[in-house]
Amino acid sequence: MRRLHACLGAAAAVALAAAGTTAFVAGSASGATTALGDRWYAAAPYLMPLDNDPPDASAIMDATGLKAFQLAFVLAPNGGGCTPTWGGTAAVSSDTAVRAVIDTIRAKGGDVSVSAGGYGGTKLGQTCSDAAATAAAYQQVITKYGLHAIDFDLEEPEYENTAAIRNEIGAAKILQQNNPGLYVSVTTAGTADGTGWFGKQMLLEAKAQGFTPNNFSIMPFDGGFNGAASQTSALTKFNGILQSTFGWDEATAYAHEGFSGMNGRSDTGEYFTQDDFQTVLDYATGHHMDRFTFWSLNRDRQCSPPDNGGRTSGTCSSVPQGSWDFAKYSVKFAGATPPTTPPSPTPTPSPSSPGNSCRTAWSSSAVYTQGDEVSYGKHNWKAKWWTQNEVPGAAQWGPWEDEGAC
Fold this sequence. Notes:
Largest sheet: 10 strands, mixed
Structural class: alpha/beta
Number of strands: 17
Distance between the termini: 27 Å
């Protein structure tokens, strides 16, 4: 996903007041804190706490004023089953690493939402037997971390599976009912027409089940988009889809609509700059939309070299920027003013030392398993899972993790 000027205007202030401050506190051994206002959960950018060179959340908070983070992604185990894991490999039940990140954020007055799904991987809706079982798996995550918010990122390949989407939407409805005040967002793919056939089928499933989340958000990137004008056009058309699907008027549809962008260079070579983010932010606040977020904070820093050779990266944006520039738009959407002079900003670490030796060259015919290392394009890469004939760096959410130049 994705994205510096004046404070929010009066329209945004009205929307902020309307959002309220939910006071839900989940029972949890982790010691849940009082919830932030809904507007913060609506503004939480995505952060991978275990992959893609995770940045220091504390440093981001100090530099930008950000309070909320969207942690990604909860999946089913890679080997199958109906228990929650981080990225398909790290069981939530025994997790301490993500818990430490959450504790650090909360100690500074912030909080987190957790995102389930994302692009690729096996989702709980695919492996659990029904909506109740799917909800029970997600409830483990909510209870362990004392969550006040959760995001269902329903996209490829899961949203092409009717039964899986029925389980996910059903689970979201159950969690909403069983956890009063829980902030629930549903994120799906965006197209020039708003969203595609599978996205529309997901909305129809929600309607059939009588489920209304805080928002339905689209990701207007990786689909032939070219800057902010194409994104706001898609948001306008998605608003029409929400109206026709649920029988809402325009204002009600916008109050249940969200934007989830991608900062910098997308997987398909689109570029979204800070100016694009400002334009979409103005549109979102001007139309009283419910959510403004982006993928991802791991990418919210300048590449080295700055243009990164025209390659999409999971650890930098490939556009000129200062560290955490795009996070400031989320802060503005939440109704806060980012610091004008960040205190002692943490320098962006170099992916690797210049003298780092290259591993054995990647081969299209070889089979690689998790942890295997190769070199390609003068970078070293580590396999996240089993892979064959998938070019390192070809896709941000692909099987290879960039370990830096060699």
